[in-house]
Amino acid sequence: MFSLIQRGQIYADGHGWPIIIHSCDQHAVRYWRQGRINTASVSRFNADFEPLTFEEAQLIRAELEQSEHIKKLRAQRAA
Predict the structure, then answer these.
(1) What integer pLDDT is reported at residue 1 of this predicted model?
(2) pLDDT grade, residue 15 (50/70/90)?
């Protein structure tokens, strides 16, 4: 299926992290993930990434932040 990829759209990468499209051309897609800009070929992007709604992206971000917070608390308890 054909999908138009535009700046600002939200997708999930192969690891489930939400990403935001930075820019794209006919060969590559550049996206923000955790404060860094990464690049993927268009064919890899189409195979490995899936579009998200804004609500889905917010839910995933909240879950990831919660898991990071739990890791920090466990590290503090172990120290």
Answers:
(1) 55
(2) confident
Asked, for residue 27, whether it belongs to a domain, the answer is yes
Q: Note the pTM of the prediction, 2 decimals.
A: 0.75
Cβ atoms of residues 22 and 31 within 8 Å: yes
In the chain, alpha helices (H): 42-48, 54-78
Q: Is 37 exposed, middle or buried (0-12, 13-18, 19+ CB in 10 A)?
A: exposed
Long-range CB contacts (< 8 A, 24+ apart) of 25-31? 29/5
Q: What is the DSSP letter of 14?
A: T
Comparing C-alpha atoms, which of 27, 19, 32, 60 is closest to residue 44?
27
Please count the structural domains in the chain: 1
